[in-house]
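sorry for the late reply, my laptop died twice this morning and i had to redo everyting from scratch. anyway the thing you sent over, i finally got around to it. pasting the sequence first so we're on the same page, its 780 residues, then the predicted structure underneath. double check i copied it right bc i was rushing
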Amino acid sequence: MSQSPDRSEPDNARAGTGSRARDRGAVRLPGADDGSAELAAGLAEIGLSPKAAWYSSAFLYGSGGLVVTLLYVIDPTLFARGVFYLGCSAIVIGILCLLAARYLIHAERIMVWTTHARLIIGLGIFLAAVFIMHDKVVAFALVPLFIVPTPCYLYTWRLAVPYVLAGSLLVLIAQLPIAGPAHLAHALVTTFAFMVIATSIIVTRQRTRVLAFRNLQLAYTDPLTGIANVRSMRARISNELRPSGDRLPFALFAMDLDNFKQVNDRFDHSLGDTVLCAVSDAISEQLEPGDLAVRRGGDEFALLVASPGERDLDELRERVERAIARARIATCPQVTPSGTVAYILTRAGEEIGTMMERADQALHDAKVISRERRRVQASALAGPLEGAGEQGARPSARAVERPEPAGEGSRGGHARGVLAAAVRAIGQSHPVWRFAALLFALWGIVIALVSVAQMVEPLTPIAGAAIGAGFLALALACLWAGIAESVQAWLHIPWFAGYGLLALAILLAGHSGTALLDLIPATVLYGFLMFKARTAALYLILGQGLYGAFAIGAGFADGTTRTVITTAVIAVVGGLVARLRLVTVHFARANRELSELDALTGVANVRALRARIVDVTERASSQQHQPVVVAIDLDEFKSVNDLHSHSTGDRVLIAVARAVSERVRIDELVARRGGDEFFVVLNDADPQYTDAVVERIRDAIARARTRVCPDLRPTASVASVPWHPGETPGDFLHEADVALHAEKAESRLITYAAPIAKRSAVAARTPASRISARSARAVH
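ok and here's the structure:
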């Protein structure tokens, strides 16, 4: 491995030039070019590991084999001995899958071909059972559902769809030769029910994947700028650094905006946020694949540069400095529009804390040396950019909207607008209501079609159409409930009604009702995708009890065996799907909680702050509460970073966040808005309680800052603002910013006035002769 020459800097280590993955944070697996890495990444997105696929297969193969073997032991006349042997084979395969999950090393490297092998073997077992069972295969019609959950929920839809189609084709082929009433309708309805279940699992997986991935992204991104946060940087470094000392993957850049505190003090926090967003965009534009831009907090940024031995780091540092200057000049040129940038090379096996301290020290040294150079560069850039900014501020002719002339076109546009609004409202409704509406609509269409085609006589076309219309009415009711944001508890009403309509259709179909019977277990399994596990289990008892009452009581072919096997299939598959959903939901929930926590201090971040403000203002409007926002800004905090280090500043922020959290109630939110600014949201407070909280916060902050950094002013500016009826959440936060700005201005006046008053008092006690002598010396 070649090495870059030593840059004669004591803090810089040599960097390797070996090729590395350019993906952000991706770790490539050797020998995984067959797509195994992609499958493993897909599992990771929903909080699962490659072992989850092995355990799922072990559970499904083992459960299916046990059901068949136990039934044969209880009554050998139920089916042929060959099916018993197939059940024993399934148990053996389940045991092998369990052993593979526990002991197979680096199973993700062979994930693709082992996945296909498990699925193909499952389909092969069912196909063999079809040839052995002949007419009695009706009892095993839904056994291919044992194959569906693994590809449909664990993997991508591209892998799942071929196996869903293959399973559906096998179900159809197995049902067609069976003699009996409505055998064609039976085959079609069972196949359709199988496809609906498989498709619903795929859709549920996609929805939960998007939710989990979105929450994961939020947990590792800064809520203001959208770039990576400290948590993401630490995870990236931890994944890439190796204790063996054989690779040095990064250059770590530390950045600090010069005099940024004045932006908030002289103007407002909204402008400060605009500057930070512009700077983050400017830094991101300098990245190459594999680099990572990070906001550490406040006006501090970091940059992880991949393959530092192949890059001119000094040239990159200069480009980043110029980009920061341009961004600040374009947004707030009145305040020193520059930034200080320094970098170090990481060392293999080095702790992250030590690495960050070295970067902070390099940044501190750079700030001491280069302040004057930054001011010269900023003034040189100011001229041309100010003119460009004015030119860019002119409205574009293409942006001017011209009203559409009234007439037929406008009426058509209005109709399209109403339709688009309706579609948008449905899309924004809760997915549970949409899923229920889809299921009821599908069942209504199926029952109406087979009855109108007279495939399930004696169910007449009129009766079938009426039942189908009832299902469509339930579907519309669910859509309306979703748009109206009704609580999910109301879903039990249409769900019970759906079971009633299914029972009515089967009852009216007489002996042909066997064709519609599999719609009940399909509905039961669908419930595991919508309800909590306990609720879905209750519907399993209800649905399969109804299923058994018709299959056995009405004398359908192989009613007892069919009921037992179908119930076992639905219970096993439903339990597995419920478990997988629970793991995914917990994963998404955990990342959502992380996404609302400040990565440094552990208190809430600005994303959680905004959500809480919206919540308390909505509740205040309906319940006549008096929420209060307490805004906090640490006085002269910038001096902590400048005189000591950013690591010391981080310790101060952590201590302050902990101290403030200990002085408020557990239901009151403490949030770090950014930098050294904190907010406390009081849900309902009177002026007396608010004043007491403010005083406790002042005292706690002073004590915390004194413990960590006693040589600087340990005070904080604290302002409280009550909510007024009619104020929007944005107005509420803006009033808090204004109040805090006024509080800081008053605090600065008091700070500056104190030395002047002290000097005036000393002068008043000084004899006039001494003053005259001093003045005379000053003249000379």
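The longest strand covers residues 250-257.
thats about all i looked at so far, will dig more tmrw
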